[in-house]
# Entry
Amino acid sequence: MQNKRCRVTLWCWLIAVTMLSSVPALAQQDSSTPASVSSNDQQDDQAIEGVVASSTRNTLVVRTSEDKFRLFEFDNNTVKPRSIPTGAHVKVSSRVSDEPGVRVASVITVTDAGATSSASSTSARPAPIPPSVRNLESDIERGVRKWRVGVRAGAALDPELFTFGVQSQLGPIFHRNINFRPNAEFAFGEVTDLIALNLEATYRLPFTPRQGRYSVYVGAGPALNFIHQSFNNSNGQGRDISFGNFDYETGFNVLAGVQYRRGTFVEMKTSLYSRPAPVLRLIVGYNF
# Structure
């Protein structure tokens, strides 16, 4: 038993170090700016003028007079008109973000609601937005959805189990950094089977931007666990398991993880007050 606990502790340290070491590496990913975006993105407090090529609830793409495409994202402090039509001439004051090729819009002013045929021949036939800019725009839109569903899978230690499940993410609620994320997990092992309904909430740590490429979060919540343990076989054909064989245990989960804006997340979780639920779970998942 002592050797088993030492092995679990070693796994915990190894996983924690791996997850924490991945955070600085994320900040260095995609360090190159897309070819269609200006290289001046690292300058703060810029004022950029151009024609609106695309506009959504959370992003704006502007084509400048140099035929460069600039992508802006909005936050709670962005001052903008209620409607920004495609083809309008705008002036955008912005600041740097943690995403190469993306700036955070501070103030958006429409200087001309629409281009006329005599104003600009290029406005009538705008050049297509480059795929690199479109991909960033889609990533930002996906990351700020109020409701998302996802899938998850992973491994559990002490006892050793294979896990998979589904989840939903709602929020933010109560606070801009808090999300409600209920999930259901199914786990199977040589001795133990587990069905867990987890009513968890996550808190995004403030040192990572809300609309950045990744966010680091911690979380907790009650767990409704149905656990079955048995060494017995049924006629040599494996265990005979039904819901009547499961014992109910209420526990409390504590977790930490890293979530990418594109939807992938890596998470480490432990269950308290719910033996024989796994001491440690390492989960990889995706939010659609």
In short: DSSP finds three helices and 13 strands in the chain. Confidence is low (pLDDT under 50) at residues 24-39, 116-123. The domain at 146-287 is CATH 2.40.160.20 (Porin).
